[in-house]
Amino acid sequence: MPHQKRLTIQTHGPGLTEFTDQAARFVRGCDVATGLLTVFVRHTSCSLLIQENADPDVQTDLQNFFHRLVPPSNAPEMDWIIHRNEGPDDMPAHIKAALTQVSLGIPVTDGQLALGTWQGIYLFEHRTRPHRREVVLYLA
Question: pLDDT tens for residues 47-102?
Fold first, then answer.
């Protein structure tokens, strides 16, 4: 029998917000020994990552890389952008989300997420303002 839950994740502007513990609690509460957890974010200007959770420098470097790769639309090199209705961070946020993922599949083994030792589940906020993001967890 499948199980589903919606999480609300509060972000604080650009960066990674880990929610591994919330996903792990959901899986433990479902009493499913073997399965697949699908994680889906219901937005187009943020994304999901499985990434190292031991050294915060990894998160800083990732955020800096994506900022260099896709700067705000008011940067001179981004003058080709047409969609500017919601500010200089909006279209770059959509591009960053397109380059990453909006859903993840994580195996469940022996009733636990089969993540590696240093892996965590993150919501990657691409907008400059804080947001409340909705993530759907589905275990089957």
Answer: 999 999 999 999 999 999 999 999 999 999 999 999 999 999 999 999 999 999 99
Statement: 3-139 belongs to CATH 2.60.120.460: yes
Can you give the residue ranges of every domain in the chain? 3-139
Q: What is the pTM of this model?
A: 0.95
Tokens coding 62: 């990732």
Q: In this structure, how many other beta carbons lie within 10 angstroms of the beta carbon of residue 125?
A: 26
Identify the burial level of 48 via C-beta atoms within 10 angstroms of its C-beta, where 0-12 means exposed, 13-18 middle and 19 or more buried. buried
Residue type, 124: F
Q: Give the integer Cα–Cα distance in Å for 110 and 3.
A: 16
